[in-house]
Amino acid sequence: MAAEDLIAPSILSADFAKLGEEVDNVIAAGADIVHFDVMDNHYVPNLTIGPLVCEALRKHGVTAPIDVHLMVKPVDRIVPDFAKAGATYITFHPEASEHIDRTLQVIHGEGCKAGLVFNPATPLSYLEYVMDKVDMVLIMSVNPGFGGQSFIPSALTKLRQAREMIDASGREIRLEIDGGVKADNIAEIKAAGADTFVSGSGIFNKGQDGDPNRYDSIIREMREALASVG
């Protein structure tokens, strides 16, 4: 049975001056998951947000799943902080962990779902020995570190390969895509095997400021495109 398609707006592209309102509006428009891009100015050349922002959104009243993508090195130290702050999923890059199996266990031990993230040139072979410990596989369709980049087409091939591995495992593992996802390519991305779609500028840069319903049309476009794929 195919997994439900989930849309995950990345708050990296949201208006941080009114972040709670932005998240409320995008969830009300039909989004499913709140995606956090956590960057440390070390593993990637940018610095973004930490556990306090996750905690603040929970205190604000956000109940949707929060998907924390850690672009940090080292990983293990910050996992408990995000778990305590209200994360649902915590994903990380294998290159950023000295002991991948251990990091996955740390995430599960904190009560969160765990996942691995694969950069455009990172092989999927890391999955072979930990497939029984992952709840999500995230394929990067841009190089990590900045929002607003263009989709790298070779990610479609990697999506197909990951989908084959997940299906062969017989496990319920979400296959997420992140980078350059927009209404005009989301159907092709789904056809390659993805079921969870991160979009930052593709959602938050749409519509007119001040209109609380400005995300309705773009998320509806995405839903229609996804529904067109058998």
Describe the model.
Helix 2 (51-60) runs parallel beside helix 3. With 230 residues, the chain is α/β, with parallel strands linked by helices. The protein has an 8-stranded parallel sheet with strand order 1-8-7-6-5-4-3-2. The chain is globular. Strand 2 (34-39), helix 2 (51-60) and strand 3 (66-71) form a beta-alpha-beta unit. The chain has helices at residues 19-28, 51-60, 79-85, 100-109, 155-169, 186-191, 201-204, 216-227; strands spanning 6-9, 34-39, 66-71, 89-92, 113-118, 136-140, 174-178, 196-199. It has a single domain, classed as Aldolase class I (TIM Barrel, Alpha-Beta Barrel), CATH 3.20.20.70. It has 8 helices and 8 strands.
* Biggest sheet record: 8 strands, parallel
| End-to-end gap | 13 Å
Total individual domains: 1
Question: What order do the helices and strands follow?
Answer: EHEHEHEHEEHEHEHH
CATH H-level superfamily title? Aldolase class I
- Strand neighbour order, sheet with most strands: 1-8-7-6-5-4-3-2
Strand elements, count: 8
> Low-confidence parts, pLDDT < 50 over ≥5 residues?
none
